[in-house]
């Protein structure tokens, strides 16, 4: 299929202005955004996005999970559309770019094609997926998960936020529950542009991340049981210190992750210590081990080595131990053809680039199960995200959107 010429670029000023205009909706307290899913602010952002899409000549579709689909027609009415997009919802203390860049970068493709009077064989559809962040309603990537067959719609509708409000009720309340059956749309391909949310691209002075895989994840909750006793009067040889046992197990987690470098990672982020008193040796601790890798066999190996090693530590210290698998998903390998389109676009446009494995979950990870999929990433300052101080440059935004533009248009097939 013909590739776009290297002088075909998006309007970078217009893209940046759109990002700043969207950021006015649901402002945070420290320069970022608080536009959580299914809030009034989410509804307002959706209205602005819809207005922009319709002004660009698109028709707007809406499914029963609130996913928005802005369609630019192709020349072949029977050709499956090329989809592009991300999400407009944010964390409670979110930045202005996480997710939003991918949606408005998709819109900028449509606007630029209109400016250049370019037609494509396949339609192009810009998508806003509902509740990617999963802050108000867990889990994250909820609506794309329903679309991709990971969750049922009834289950999603019944989810409640901290105040007991149900997802389905709030979706209807803000007026963004559509009639279209979720998941019935067929895709020729899907592309997602996102900020890296990590430090690699900036540290290596690369403009573009070509995302080849999404990490798999394993969460194991560990309960270590010892005996509560006085810190001052219990002799060292007679202690059953669950806290000390956990410390040795956390060192084991780190060793295991390092043994599968460079792509595997591991840590424990959630730790509860009981009774958590200054002068009581902990009698029980509960912590969750988070292992991640782009290779499923590596994740399984890390799980097995940890369980075996932790049991040995507990046995040697006279501690009880119990394991419970509390979450996880398999690694994602993105479509070779779509990944090649992204890499080729970066090379054609002269942007420095490197292959990346996404350490975070994205809507693309679920859509990958039902359509050929790939992701484009651009740097963010200090790798910071899920924070109001999240920042990117207009140059980075433009580079990512230009690569997205070329990959999408090439896949949608230029009409000469």
Describe it.
This protein has 12 helices and 15 strands. The protein is α/β, with parallel strands linked by helices. The strands form 3 sheets. Strands 1, 2, 3, 4, 5, 6, 13, 14 and 15 form a 9-stranded mixed β-sheet that branches. A 4-stranded antiparallel β-sheet has the order 9-11-7-12, covered by helices on one side. A hairpin with a 5-residue loop joins strand 1 and strand 2. Helix 1 runs antiparallel to helix 3, helix 1 crosses helix 12 and helix 8 packs antiparallel against helix 9. The N and C termini lie close together (11 Å). The mean pLDDT is 97.
Jot down its keywords.
single chain, 416 residues, alpha/beta, 12 helices, 15 strands, 22% strand, elongated
Q: In a few lines, what is going on in this structure?
A:
The termini are close together. By secondary structure, the chain is an alpha/beta fold.
Question: Helix and strand layout, with pairings?
Answer:
Elements: H1 12-23, H2 40-55, E1 59-62, E2 68-72, E3 82-86, H3 100-116, E4 124-128, H4 142-147, H5 153-158, H6 167-173, E5 189-195, H7 200-203, E6 208-214, E7 216-225, E8 229-230, H8 242-259, E9 265-274, E10 280-281, E11 284-293, H9 296-317, E12 320-329, E13 332-333, H10 336-349, E14 353-358, H11 363-367, E15 373-378, H12 394-412
Parallel strand pairs: 3-4, 3-5, 5-15, 6-14
Antiparallel strand pairs: 1-2, 2-4, 6-13, 6-15, 7-11, 7-12, 8-10, 9-11
């Amino acid at each position: 299929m013909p590739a776009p010429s290297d002088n075909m670029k998006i309007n970078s000023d217009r893209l940046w202005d759109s990002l700043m205009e969207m950021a006015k909706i649901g402002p945070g307290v420290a320069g970022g955004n608080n536009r959580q899913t299914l809030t009034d602010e989410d509804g307002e952002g959706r209205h602005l996005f819809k207005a922009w899409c319709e002004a660009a000549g698109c028709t707007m579709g809406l499914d029963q999970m609130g996913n928005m689909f802005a369609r630019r027609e192709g020349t072949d009415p029977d050709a499956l559309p090329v989809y592009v997009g991300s999400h407009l919802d944010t964390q409670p203390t979110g930045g202005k770019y996480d997710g939003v860049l991918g949606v408005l970068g998709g819109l900028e493709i449509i606007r630029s094609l209109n400016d250049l009077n370019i037609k494509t064989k396949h339609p192009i559809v810009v998508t806003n997926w509902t509740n990617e962040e999963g802050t108000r309603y867990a889990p994250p990537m909820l609506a794309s998960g329903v679309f991709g067959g990971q969750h049922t719609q009834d289950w999603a509708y019944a989810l409640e936020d901290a105040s007991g409000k149900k997802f389905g009720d709030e979706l209807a309340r803000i007026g963004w529950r559509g009639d279209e059956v979720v998941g019935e749309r067929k895709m020729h391909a899907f592309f997602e542009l996102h900020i890296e949310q990590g430090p690699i691209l900036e540290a290596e002075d690369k403009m573009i991340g070509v995302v080849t895989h999404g990490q798999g994840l394993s969460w194991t909750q560990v309960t270590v049981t010892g005996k509560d006793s006085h810190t001052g009067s219990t002799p060292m040889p007679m202690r059953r210190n669950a806290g000390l046992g956990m410390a040795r197990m956390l060192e084991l987690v780190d060793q295991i992750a390092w043994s599968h470098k460079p792509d595997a990672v591991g840590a424990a982020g959630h730790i509860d210590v009981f009774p958590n008193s200054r002068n009581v040796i902990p009698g029980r601790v509960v912590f969750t081990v988070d292992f991640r890798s782009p290779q499923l066999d590596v994740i399984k190996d890390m799980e097995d080595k940890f369980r075996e090693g932790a049991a040995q530590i507990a046995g040697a210290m006279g501690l009880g131990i119990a394991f419970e698998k509390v979450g996880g998903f398999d690694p994602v390998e993105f479509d070779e053809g779509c990944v090649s389109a992204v890499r080729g676009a970066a090379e054609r446009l002269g942007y420095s680039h490197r292959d990346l494995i996404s350490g975070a979950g994205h809507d693309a990870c679920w859509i990958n199960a039902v359509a050929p999929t790939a992701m484009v990433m651009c740097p963010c300052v200090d790798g910071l995200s899920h924070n109001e101080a999240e920042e990117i440059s207009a140059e980075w935004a433009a580079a990512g959107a230009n690569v997205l533009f070329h990959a999408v248009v090439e896949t949608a097939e230029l009409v000469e």
